[in-house]
């Protein structure tokens, strides 16, 4: 019985990790990879559910199934975080309109668009920087290292076309 419970637990972790990755890939437009994962996911799901349904008279099998599901969500999220799929846009607002931050970021290979904004206390330099998610933490630390008072908002774009990314798509 212990071996069966361990198998149910592991099947659930793999199944839900696949489910989590498939959903994220679908949202990011990776439909073919998501479809391949869905094939594996549903096969694993049917096997796991079949095992649990055979032992419905033993509540421990359902508890193990549910615990595997919960851990599968965490595992799938962790895997996706490590893969760091997609892109992020950082919108940066700097108090000093003459800041050298845009050129420093450009020297590091980032595409930077700037414009002037106006806040409560006057002019602000606005920056928009697009980067791969895997480079997000490094970019954030670079900005804060150069200007600790920078205001940074991060969001994930769903589509983009042209500009810097068509010339240098590996950044």
Automatic annotation (TrEMBL):
Transmembrane segment boundaries: 6-25, 32-53, 59-79
Coiled-coil region: none
Domain of life from the UniProt record: Bacteria
UniProt-listed CDD domains: YitT_C_like_1
Keywords: Cell membrane, Membrane, Transmembrane, Transmembrane helix
CC terms in the record's Gene Ontology section: plasma membrane
Main localization (coarse): membrane
Topology class, membrane: Multi-pass membrane protein
Matching InterPro entries: DUF2179 (IPR019264), DUF5698 (IPR044035), UPF0316 (IPR022930)
Subcellular location per the Swiss-Prot or TrEMBL entry: Cell membrane
Family as reported in the entry's similarity comment: Belongs to the UPF0316 family.
Name recorded for this polypeptide: UPF0316 protein SAMN06295960_1908
Species per Swiss-Prot/TrEMBL record: Paenibacillus aquistagni
């Amino acid at each position: 019985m212990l071996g069966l419970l361990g198998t149910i637990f592991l099947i659930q972790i793999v199944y839900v990790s696949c489910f989590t990755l498939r959903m994220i890939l679908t949202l990011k437009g990776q439909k073919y990879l998501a479809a391949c994962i869905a094939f594996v996911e549903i096969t694993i799901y049917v096997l796991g559910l079949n095992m649990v349904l055979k032992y419905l008279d033993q509540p421990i099998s359902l508890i193990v199934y549910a615990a595997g599901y919960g851990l599968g969500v965490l595992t799938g999220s962790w895997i996706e975080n490590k893969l760091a799929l997609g892109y992020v846009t950082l919108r940066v607002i700097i108090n000093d309109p003459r800041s050298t931050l845009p050129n420093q970021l450009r020297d590091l290979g980032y595409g930077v668009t700037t414009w002037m904004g106006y806040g409560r206390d006057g002019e602000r330099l606005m920056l928009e920087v697009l980067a791969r998610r895997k480079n997000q933490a490094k970019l954030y630390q670079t900005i804060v290292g150069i200007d600790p008072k920078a205001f940074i908002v991060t969001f994930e774009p769903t589509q983009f076309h042209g500009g810097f990314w068509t010339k240098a798509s590996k950044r």
